[in-house]
Amino acid sequence: MQQQEWKFGTHQIHHEPPDVLVASFSGMLNLEDMKRAVEIYGIAAQSGPYYLIANIGSSQLQAEARRYLSDNSRAEWFKGCVYVGADMVQQTFGKVISLGMFLTGKTEFRTEFVKTMAEAYTWVAQQRGATLRKSG
Predict the structure, then answer these.
(1) Which of 87, 94, 124, 136 is 20 to 30 A from 28 in CA distance terms?
(2) Are strands 78-84 and 50-61 parallel, antiparallel or unpaired?
């Protein structure tokens, strides 16, 4: 992956080798913001699937942006997703997206909700370990 960091509006996404994409969203995410985020998710997936850490605690997602995310994200892009700082509404939406990913062909789509970035990185490390144990 050539580009390692993207900024748009009050949001930013960056790649952490080997397989983590960290998205930090702040404020309202409108349709244009979500189109850009989904575009970046797809670009990142060209190097293979990755874990997405989405820091969403200080953001809100407009309904049309939520629909766009749901309709245009691809399960094969992700190894799993961890949401940081999600409130109950965001958690419900995250679970709906995960179910959609599962139903579109992924045999399992791992999603977790945590309070801190440190917990998110711990979850990713645990998922990597579980994957290694399954394959080895």
Answers:
(1) 124
(2) parallel
What are the sequence ranges of the domains in the chain? 5-131
Residue type, 99: L
Q: What is the pLDDT of residues 3-42, one digit of tens each?
A: 699 999 999 999 999 999 999 999 999 999 999 999 999 9
Q: Is 134 left (phi over 0), alpha (psi -120 to 50) or beta?
A: alpha
Q: Which residues contact 49 (CB under 8 A, 6 or more apart)?
A: 19, 76, 77, 78, 79
Residues 73 and 97 sit within 8 Å (Cβ to Cβ) = yes
Residue count (the chain)? 136
Q: What is the CATH number of domain 5-131?
A: 3.30.750.24
pTM attached to this predicted model: 0.87
